[in-house]
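Justification of resources, computational component.

The compute hours requested in this renewal are based largely on the per-chain cost of generating structure records like the one below. Each record pairs the submitted sequence with a full structure-token output. That output is archived, and it is also reused by downstream analysis tasks.
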Amino acid sequence: MDIFKIKKNDTLPALSVTLNNSSDEAIDLSNGSVWFNMAHLTNYSSYVSGICVITGSTTGNVEYQWTGSIDTGSVGTYWAEFEFQNSGSKMTFPSDHNLQVQVYENYN
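The structure output for this chain reads:
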């Protein structure tokens, strides 16, 4: 299981990933869009949903850029996933495990 860690209200670092298919080949993102979704760990209710920046359309590289208190304003552990959408079809990543985001308290 992958865990991304960030402090409360921080906007850096962006969450960067490479989207690969089941053969571990990069997904060609040239004709689609990628969304980031994050939900509460305990009840799966949606907490964050937003468009990603495609940083490598033929290499499957994307990043989600945090918007501070809107995205990282609540301390806790969350499930997260990326959705590639293309011509009415979608593929969810990671497909073989869960991604977690841990937001820690910021003491300053």
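The domain at 2-104 is CATH 2.60.40.3350 (Immunoglobulin-like). The first strand starts at residue 2 and ends at 7.
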